[in-house]
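Repro case for the chain-ordering regression, as requested:
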Amino acid sequence: MNIRPAVEQDRDAIWNIFHEVVAAGDTYAFDPQTLREEALAYWFRADTHTYIAEQEKKIVGTYILRANQGGAGSHVANAAFMVAPNAQGQGIGRAMGEHCLSEARRLGFRAMQFNLVISANESAIRLWQQLGFKIVGTLPGAFRHPQKGYVDVYVMFRSLEDTR
Amino acid sequence: MNIRPAVEQDRDAIWNIFHEVVAAGDTYAFDPQTLREEALAYWFRADTHTYIAEQEKKIVGTYILRANQGGAGSHVANAAFMVAPNAQGQGIGRAMGEHCLSEARRLGFRAMQFNLVISANESAIRLWQQLGFKIVGTLPGAFRHPQKGYVDVYVMFRSLEDTR
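-- result from build under test --
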C-alpha cells in the first residue's frame, strides 16, 4: 500500500469513496445528498492536506488533515478518514491513521482531535484507541444513526508531544 | 434590552464587537488578525441565524445560532456569543443565552453544544452551567491563552428536550 498527497486526477476516485461512505449514513454527519462539487470542495479545502491510499494503482482510501480550530486553537489537528467499502478490514484505516499522525507531527501540530466519532462505530473506536487516542468527551444522542436511532458521539484526543 | 435578528445595517456594530473580542484573544479561536469581510461572512453565513442585543438603540452584543454538524448531526445546535467589552457584567450574555435557547427550541433543535469553552473563562462557564449546560468533554491544552499559555478547553452540552 502507498499513501501520498492527493492530486487533481484523484478526484473521481475520492468522490466515489466519499459518496459510498456518506450514503451509508452511519459514520459521518454529512448530508447523504451532498453533491460531488460540495464534497470535493470540502475535501480539498485550501486549509486542508488531502491524501489517498492506493493498492496496485487503485485508490482504496482517503483522508484529510487540517487545524481543528483557527487562531489560538490551531495547534490541534483534526482529521477524517474514509476507506472504500469494498476494501475495508484490510488495515487501510490503520495505515492511514499512522501516516496521518506522522504528517501531523511533521506539520508541527501538538495534538489531534476527532470531533465526531459515532459510539456505534466500534471498529473505529478500537483503532483510534490502539493509536493512542482517548475518549475525552461524550455527546449524548448527538448522531441520528440510520438503524439505531439517536446514539452518543465521542470526542477523541491524543497529544503528539510524547514519543511513541 | 432588546434582542432581535441582525440586519445589514448592524454590520458595522457587529464588526466592532467581533474585532474587540477577538483581539483580546482569550475567549475565541479566531485569528486576531481576522479581516472584517471574513468575520462578517462567518457571522452571517447562509446556514446561520444572527442576532443582536441592543440597549437604548446601541448594539451591545451579538450571537449566532446554527447546526453544529450537517446530516445526521444537524439536530444539535451550536452558538457563539459576543458582548461589547465596555458592556460586560450587565447580564447581556445571560439574556442572549436565554434568547438563544428559546430560538433553538423554536427552530426544532434537540440539543445545544459549545465546542470551545476556554477553561480560564470562568464567568462564561458559570453562566452556561446556570443555563443548564454540563461539561461533557475536556480537551487538554487545546487553547493557547495569551496570558496563561496552553489551557484546557471544555465541550459543553445541554438537551433541549426537557422542560425547564
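Ordering looks correct now. The longest helix of chain A spans residues 92-106.
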